[in-house]
């Protein structure tokens, strides 16, 4: 009986943990994915607590960059290409590119499809 009660408690705990995980919304259309990605980048660039804003302030990144990001599957950035730059230096550019490669969007996309978007950073 004791083992049975422990098994029920373990199953209940496992189920509670699974329900606590966030389900990322699945976006289907290309326009919806690009609009949502741009909105998330806009939010991440907002002072004073935006994730990218804080990174840029910490490393004193300056310049203007138009970056082409390629997204795949669960909002993962799989490539970053500098489409255009102005008043920029290579170390700042590389730091920003490296950080964008680690950025994770909060939505899922159809599997095995890539989505490209351009985003302008004016720092």
Percent of residues in helical segments?
A: 40-55%
The share of residues in extended strands comes to: 15-25%
Q: What is the quaternary state of this protein? A: single chain
Instruction: Provide mean pLDDT, rounded.
Output: 87
Rg over C-alpha atoms, rounded to the nearest angstrom: 20 Å
Record field, number of beta strands: 3
Biggest sheet, open or closed, and with what strands and sense?
Answer: 3 strands, antiparallel
Structural class from helices and strands? alpha+beta
Strand order of the largest sheet: 2-1-3
Tally of domains: 1
Helix/strand order: HHHEEHE
Our measurement of the CA-to-CA distance between the termini, rounded to an integer number of angstroms, reads 65 Å
How would you sum up the global shape?
globular
Regions with little confidence, pLDDT below 50 for 5+ residues:
16-20
Number of alpha- plus pi-helical segments: 4
Short description:
By secondary structure, this protein is of the alpha+beta class.
Question: What would your notes on this structure say?
Answer:
- It is a single chain.
- The protein is an alpha+beta fold and 123 residues long.
- It has one domain.
- The protein contains 4 helices and 3 strands; from the N terminus they run αααββαβ.
- It has a 3-stranded antiparallel β-sheet with strand order 2-1-3, covered by helices on one side.
- A hairpin with a 3-residue loop joins β1 and β2.
- The longest helix is centred in the first third of the chain and has 19 residues.
- About 4% of the residues have low confidence.
